[in-house]
Specification:
155 residues; mainly beta; 0% helix
Length: 155
């Protein structure tokens, strides 16, 4: 439950317009990141920079999430989409009660050009069990340099 505010600014740093949103990940560890998206339905005619500030975050409870291992991760262009496949394994001592994946695509400058989060059709993953996944995302650019996948399994 992390909420951020994105503010569009002019050259002098004056705020022009702001929106608040929750990020895609449920938990973010130290040094980690999470994608988010903001839609300005009537944006200013121009802006020169932006600022992102955290508004709300709750202390994490690392014990609330299962250790999910990602294997056989591949990503390939598939027409106008980017297809990510692989396997998830529950490496924890208890079954999951929820299972969610977040795929993030980056350009050559490490900017996010697309992401998607998907709740698994079968949220329960037994201890030691493995399940395949197949996720397609649409990005702002066909030039995907790299991508990442985060799996979150609730206990």
């Amino acid at each position: 439950n992390v909420q951020v505010q994105l503010t569009l600014q002019d050259d002098a740093g004056n705020p022009l317009q702001a929106q608040t949103v929750f990020v895609a990940r449920d938990t973010i560890g130290a040094g980690e990141t999470s994608p988010f998206r903001v839609l300005f339905t009537a944006p200013p005619t121009s802006f020169s920079k932006f600022a992102v500030i955290p508004l709300r975050a709750e202390p994490g409870n690392g014990g609330a999430f299962a250790q999910i291992k990602v294997d056989k991760l591949t990503g390939t262009p598939n027409g106008a989409q980017f297809k990510v496949t692989g396997e998830l394994t529950n490496g924890d001592q208890v079954d999951t009660t929820s299972l969610r994946m977040i795929v993030t695509a980056y350009d050559t400058e490490k900017r996010v050009i697309g992401y998607r989060y998907v709740d698994a059709a079968q949220p329960v993953l037994s201890v030691g069990a493995t399940t395949p996944f197949d996720i397609s995302i649409v990005t702002a650019s066909q030039s995907i340099s790299t991508f990442s996948l985060i799996a979150e399994g609730g206990k």
